[in-house]
Amino acid sequence: MRRLLVSICLACLFAGSALVAGETEAAARQYEKLSAEAAAVMKQSNPKPEDIRGLLVGFDRFAALYPKSSHAPDALYRRAILGITYISDKERIVCFRRIVDEYARSSLCEGSYFSLGQLYLDSGDARSARRAFCMMLSRYPSTRMRKTVHGMLNQINLIGKSPRPMELRDINGSIVKFPADGIPTVIGFWAAWCEPSVKQQELIGKLRAKFGPERLEILSICLDGDPQKVLSPFAKIDKSRRPRILASKGWDDPLAKEFRVVTVPATFVLDRHGVVRHVGTGGDGLWAAIHALLDAEAKQEPPKKGKPGTKKRGQPSRHDDNSPEAKPRD
Predict the structure, then answer these.
(1) Is the same domain home to 234 and 291?
(2) β partners of residue 217
(3) What is the CATH number of the domain that holds 125?
(4) Other Cβ atoms within 10 Å of 121 Cβ, number
(5) Are residues 209 and 284 in the same domain?
(6) In the chain, what's the furthest Cα-to-Cα distance?
(7) Residue 184: which CATH number?
(8) What angle separates helix 195-211 from helix 284-300, to the nearest 10 degrees?
(9) Is residue 325 part of a domain?
């Protein structure tokens, strides 16, 4: 009887090993095929959106079907990176979060922590961003991004504080008072060679076009690149609606040092009192931060007084026969 039980256990063990080996081989073949498809798509000068979406679905399915495969963290990482303009930031956070939680030994954890920090910061969750950056420094003390991560942590520390006032100059030589008096200010640091930061400038240009200079001051400062390209992100925006483009002294610019800028794009939102309320790279979180700030500012504004002699709706007139004041006292 004992021999029979041992035989059954050994048979189950061998069957399980064979099943795992078969699953591993199937996963390897599947991922090799998926990687070949991705390489073919990315070789195109202008990949079609439907091809990119197809790859995102493929990477997602692979990670779901073969979670124990050595290729699973790579599938999640590539889905998060490729999906920067196709899936939400929340979905990208889930991908990076799974990598650091479920695949702690993966070499992709270092980059995933950094991406998590940036995404959390853009979404307005500074506490989670700080935690991600600190975890990265704790697990990878010799990381080549150490200086950048410390810079991001210094930027997070600016939230709730007021940078020192300055008098700046735009590219036309006009004086620009920073921060603006009485209205929120958005300032974007960028470089002409950096495609994500050029897109950031297009975004803040749309902010200025939507809200107007009366409600929002938008400042743009290019830290590096061809000066002739400084206006390129705003070519499609009316001149009256463009951000105020500041003259730049490069990475040693006093304003860049004041905001601890170590990488681009970098975006900061200040309220009407000059206090930093949002730090990030741009994206949907910037829109949300601006809307929340403007809504809060509107609620804090005192109600406008009506003209003398005007009557408010629903308020009885002093000369109204039906008003209490018009009735004679006994």
Answers:
(1) yes
(2) 185
(3) 1.25.40.10
(4) 25
(5) yes
(6) 113
(7) 3.40.30.10
(8) 30
(9) no
- Closest by CA position to 171, among listed 246, 241, 255: 246
Q: Considering only CA atoms, which of 123, 282, 259, 294 is closest in space to residue 205?
A: 282
Q: Give the per-residue pLDDT at 85.
A: 82
Mean pLDDT within 209-235: 75
Q: Which residues pair with 189 in a beta bridge?
A: 221, 266
C-alpha distance from residue 262 to each of 5, 97, 302 (Å) = 65, 25, 40
Q: Tell me, yes or no, whether 20 lies in a domain.
A: no
**Residue 102 shares a structural domain with residue 205:** no
Give yes or no for residue 302 having a pLDDT over 60: no
- Peptide linkage before 179 cis (omega within 30 of 0): yes
d(CA 304, CA 307): 10
Last residue of a domain, one of 102, 137, 156: 156
Name the nearest CA neighbour of 30 among 76, 77, 63, 79: 63
Same domain, 48 and 71: yes
13 Cβ contact partners less than 8 Å away, ≥ 6 residues apart: none
Instruction: State the pTM of this model.
Output: 0.79
pLDDT tens digits along 240-275: 666 777 878 888 889 999 999 999 999 999 999 999
> Residue 63's pLDDT band (boundaries 50, 70, 90)?
very high
Q: Which domain holds residue 288?
A: 166-297
Provide the number of structural domains found in the chain: 2
Residue 173 has pLDDT above 60, yes or no: yes
pLDDT given for residue 21 in this prediction: 42
Q: Residue 288 CA to chain centroid, in angstroms?
A: 10
Nearest CA among 143, 177, 159 for reference residue 270: 159
